[in-house]
UniProtKB/TrEMBL annotation:
<feature type="region of interest" description="Disordered">
    <location>
        <begin position="32"/>
        <end position="54"/>
    </location>
</feature>
<protein>
    <submittedName>
        <fullName>3479_t:CDS:1</fullName>
    </submittedName>
</protein>
């Protein structure tokens, strides 16, 4: 009977250990699920911020394109005016040489 009682005690202790392990496992699973949900929420928040920033940068770039075009056009116009002035001066010099 003592041996039977010891076996019962050992079985009860083993059952308690299994229950404790199951409880710890369940608690750890909930912790990990919470951590995963938190990380996913953070990832989504960062992704939204990145999308917003990308949109802002795209809008800024789009706004700069006309300015760049205007600057390039102004630079091209300035080059043409310089070339015209050079040709006009050259014509005047040739005209002077021709008549003097």
């Amino acid at each position: 009977t003592i041996a039977v009682a010891e076996v019962k005690i050992t079985a009860i202790e083993a059952h308690q250990k299994v229950d404790n392990l199951a409880c710890k496992t369940k608690h750890r699973k909930k912790e990990l699920e919470h951590k995963l949900a938190t990380e996913q929420a953070e990832r989504e928040r960062v992704e939204k911020e990145n999308q917003k920033r990308n949109q802002e940068l795209a809008e800024q770039l789009e706004a700069l394109r006309p300015e760049k075009f205007k600057k390039e056009a102004a630079d091209e116009q300035a080059k043409k005016l310089r070339k015209f002035a050079e040709l006009k001066e050259e014509k005047q010099n040739l005209t002077r040489k021709l008549f003097f």
